[in-house]
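Fold this complex.
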Amino acid sequence: MTWWHVLVGFLLPNLLGYGGGPAMIPLLQDQAVTHYHWLSNAEFANVLALGNVLPGPIATKMATFIGYQVEGWLGLVLALAATVVPSAIALILLMRLLNRFRQSDAVKGMTAMVQPVITVLMIALTWEFGKTSVLKIGWIQSLIIAALSLWLMQWRKVHPALVIVGAFAYGGVVLPLFQ
Amino acid sequence: MENDGYLPLVLAMVRTGIFTYGGGSAIIPLMRHEAVNRYAWVTDDEYGEIVAVANALPGPIATKLAAYLGYRLKGWPGAVVGVLANILPTCIAMLLLFGALSAIRESRIAQGMIAAVNPVIAVMMGMMAYEFGEKAWKGLGRWFAIAFGALAFLLLIVLDVSPALVVLLYLLYGAFHLRLVHRFQRAKQRDRGTSA
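Structure:
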């Protein structure tokens, strides 16, 4: 009955983890380490650290690896499904509801009212990433890369992915020289 | 090339999946570039709405956005394709490269690469903040935008209230906002009518 445990063990953190991937990590640790003993605390920390080397959402990377460790391919599929499916279906159904009443004053008001919240959330994220950047590569380089990417994306309309590739190249070639 | 086929969907989702560094939220501006600027699947206003509602729900933000945009394009099969294209590359990498990841993590080159992306993501977030601030300004009117923006700042940043809760509160109030504004305007007109 381990497959059932995998499903529940991943379902709970993802349903209760408000605030995206990082919020569910402690909850997942509680399930995987404390409750089911799938792996030790040190192993969990290691999977998390190594998962952070790769791009993409951390929750799905953790689900892939731990699910596969516990129950093979079935475990992988179940852990991923528990991580992705409930919230995806919830968003689709909610948006369908909003779109059905698109013309009503209520939905128009909701759409308008959401803009200031998004603005502030984005300011908070700007601050977070900016802080991380200054911690890792310092003020000067952070500002230079930031100014360059702003110019490229805002005025030259370069695809963000290309700007990210450029930052990779700089970080891979130049930054190691400073360390 | 058609914008609303499976190929653009898969390409957009793979691109956003493999370029999202520094946590799930970094996907928000990247996904916006694909869905709004490049392929015009949704308008900018709707994208903001999707991000807000997605924020009010639990679970990873990237997969929610991928699922909904896929659904918008191709219904339920599109949702499945969107999510898989978005997460499979990194999931496969996690399984295949797990042994090598610790070596990659120790490497200065990899560390430098991941570190140098942070300011780019910060700028993307800042650009989005500016544009949605502009939208709030136009959509709600100057004073409402400033007032509700300040209130959101107080709740989210100063008091550290969960974003999900703040979004839900704003959505709830938003459902009545226009009715209240209309009533207020009518009352004002009546006052003018009686005082004249």
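Chain A touches chain B through 91 residues (CB under 8 Å).
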